[in-house]
Amino acid sequence: MVADDRTIPHIGSAIESGHRSPAAADRLPRHVTKDRFLMPDAPSANVPDRNLALELVRVTEAAAMAGGRWVGRGDKNRADGAAVEAMRALISTVEMRGTVVIGEGEKDNAPMLFNGEQVGNGAGPEVDVAVDPIDGTTLTAKGMPNAIAVMAVSDRGSMYDPSAVFYMDKLVAGPEVADVVDIRLPAAENVRRIAKVKKERPEDVTVVMLDRPRHEALAREVRDTGARIKLISDGDVAGAISAARETTGIDLLLGIGGTPEGIITACAIKCLGGVIQGRLWPQDDDERQKAIDAGHDLDKVLTTDDLVTSDNCFFVGTGITDGELLQGVRYSRGRATTNSIVMRSKSGTVRVIESHHVLDRTAGLPRSEG
């Protein structure tokens, strides 16, 4: 993929923050990244290196630009297919020996990026890979906000296996309130605790949740505190990350969503700080028994460290449609502009990157599609 390098010092035009970075790093020249000071040692061939982050962002940029051609066109399957193909083409160039732990499905049901597929160029560190070429396919098809292309990478064997139970009851919040929230508490109590820590009223708290019939009682409980609710139709990865970041106006994510999305979110939370807690939520008796037979404790609260055991992981996302987290792809005169977030847990560095692409020079992405 060829990006317009005039925008890169990517990092020069990036917004950088690190919750574990020394304050002095914030005063570095714009062309010097904090990682240089935080990671002085030469990387091991078996450990994901900081340079991997900028390789990964090219993968999500490709998926977003391909899927973005289908925004508002009413065909979520073709949007997803385009994003998968673009992601698959670019991921093979990344210097890693990756195994897809969370992908597009099992091998027999998905032609690309299936669970267990080996990805990368065969060199570099061994890693677990989680991909969602479009988190929010319906959002993309309808031209609605908050569709993103996402990818997470961590040390091999460190990601939770989501195969037993597809859904999970989740709570996500940012670093400021991470120590006071608890998924075992009533939602109203969590709202009140957040308000107290932030020295606000419950009416000032905003909770995001998926707009599903199963959340009607939960929504009533939250509203009874006076708190506001932002209902989203899809895309709970973007919703969860928005709850963990300070600048989005979202304080808390609650409710039942996909287990794979929970693991991807956990990689982001490792980078941002904050908290994700989850409990497996079987859809029926058969799935419940399958989980029990596999040795899962359905009452156990899964923490961030349960979902991703490694402290060296990456999260990358590129906006497809505009949202609280990222701007969507812009196309004009054979060019595209993308907005991405790149995070690494080991340094705590968060970058927001704007890239400018010449489409007829960008691998696998013709000037017009469809």
Oligomeric description of these chains: single chain
Q: Roughly how many Å apart are the termini?
A: 20 Å
Order of helices and strands: EHHHEEEHEEHEHEHEHEHHEEEE
For the biggest sheet, the summary is: 9 strands, mixed
Q: What is the CATH topology descriptor of the largest domain? A: Fructose-1,6-Bisphosphatase, Chain A, domain 1
Number of domains: 2
Question: Would you tell me the structural class of the helices and strands?
Answer: alpha+beta
Strand tally: 14
Helix coverage percent: 25-40%
Strand content: 15-25%
What is the CATH class designation of the largest domain?
Answer: Alpha Beta
Shape: globular
- The gyration radius over C-alpha positions equals 20 Å
CATH architecture grouping of the largest domain: 2-Layer Sandwich
- Going by CATH, the homologous superfamily of the largest domain would be Fructose-1,6-Bisphosphatase, subunit A, domain 1
What are the segments in which pLDDT stays under 50 over at least 5 consecutive residues? 1-43, 366-370
What is the count of helical runs? 10
What do the pLDDT scores average to?
Answer: 86
What does this structure look like?
With 370 residues, the chain is of the alpha+beta class. It has 2 domains: 5-156 and 311-361, Fructose-1,6-Bisphosphatase, Chain A, domain 1, CATH 3.30.540.10; 167-307, D-Maltodextrin-Binding Protein, domain 2. It has helices at 35-38, 52-68, 76-91, 137-142, 187-197, 216-224, 236-244, 259-272, 285-293, 304-307; strands spanning 15-18, 97-102, 118-119, 126-135, 148-155, 167-173, 206-210, 228-232, 252-258, 275-280, 313-319, 330-332, 335-344, 349-358. The strands form 2 sheets. Strands 1, 2, 3, 4, 5, 11, 12, 13 and 14 form a 9-stranded mixed β-sheet that branches. A 5-stranded mixed β-sheet has the order 8-7-9-6-10, sandwiched between helices. A hairpin with a 4-residue loop joins strand 13 and strand 14. Helix 2 runs antiparallel to helix 3 (76-91) and helix 7 (236-244) packs parallel to helix 8 (259-272).
